[in-house]
């Protein structure tokens, strides 16, 4: 839809036409029009935390909820997420080390979704190549400092299959 990246809450961008600055109803109307044009059965968005709290992802969560209601034929909404249980087991011990690694930002505990609220998991190991290519397409996220995308792309295949091989969703009726 042509919106600019808003940056993170602690490091916002200063550009114009940022997604987070655009009223939810305006963006949702544009998304609903696409849903209607495509006669879509399914809409994907982000969980209520925007995954790890990116302001644009949180905005997309709200937009998707409204767009689903505005669409002529209400599509099923799948909110992309992760089961935060295993992620927090990794993140919590790393927090004391974060100050030693410039550019590394570790999220708080209110990220992604509690295991009880994950309603769908999909095995995507067969699509690992496509998933890595999609991650690599986020050029702004693959360089400079310690970046999650850069680390994910560097994982050896066996570990990448384990880490990237499942997609989690919260299904919204």
Provide an overview of this structure.
It is built from 7 helices and 6 strands. With 173 residues, the protein is of the alpha+beta class. The chain has a 4-stranded mixed β-sheet. A two-stranded antiparallel sheet has the order 1-2. Helix 1 (24-38) crosses helix 3 (55-70). The mean pLDDT is 89.
Q: Which features would summarize this protein structure in a list?
A:
two-stranded antiparallel ribbon; alpha+beta; four-stranded mixed β-sheet; 6 strands; 173 residues
Please give the alpha-carbon distance between the first and last residues. 25 Å
Strands of the widest sheet, in order across it, are: 3-4-6-5
How much of the sequence lies in strands comes to 15-25%
How many strand units?
A: 6
Briefly say what this structure is.
The protein has 173 residues and is α+β, with helices and mostly antiparallel strands. The chain has helices at residues 24-38, 50-53, 55-70, 84-98, 128-136, 148-154, 157-164, and strands spanning 7-8, 11-12, 42-46, 76-81, 120-123, 166-172.
SSE blueprint and pairings:
Elements: E1 7-8, E2 11-12, H1 24-38, E3 42-46, H2 50-53, H3 55-70, E4 76-81, H4 84-98, E5 120-123, H5 128-136, H6 148-154, H7 157-164, E6 166-172
Parallel strand pairs: 3-4
Antiparallel strand pairs: 1-2, 4-6, 5-6
């Amino acid at each position: 839809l042509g919106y600019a990246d808003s940056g993170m809450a602690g490091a916002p961008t200063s550009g114009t036409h940022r997604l987070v600055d655009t009223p939810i109803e305006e963006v949702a109307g544009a998304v609903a029009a696409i849903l209607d044009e495509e006669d879509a059965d399914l809409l994907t968005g982000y969980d209520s935390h925007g995954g790890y709290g990116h302001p644009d992802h949180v905005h997309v969560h709200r937009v998707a909820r409204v767009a689903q209601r505005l669409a002529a034929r209400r599509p099923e909404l799948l909110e992309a997420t992760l089961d935060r249980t295993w992620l927090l087991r990794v993140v919590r011990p790393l927090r004391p080390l974060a100050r030693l690694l410039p550019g590394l930002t570790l999220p708080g505990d209110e990220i992604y979704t509690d295991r009880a609220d994950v309603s769908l998991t999909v095995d995507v190991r067969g699509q690992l190549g496509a998933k890595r290519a999609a991650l690599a397409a986020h050029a702004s996220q693959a360089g400079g400092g310690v970046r999650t995308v850069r680390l994910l792309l560097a994982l050896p295949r066996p570990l990448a299959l384990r880490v990237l091989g499942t997609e989690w969703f919260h299904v919204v009726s």
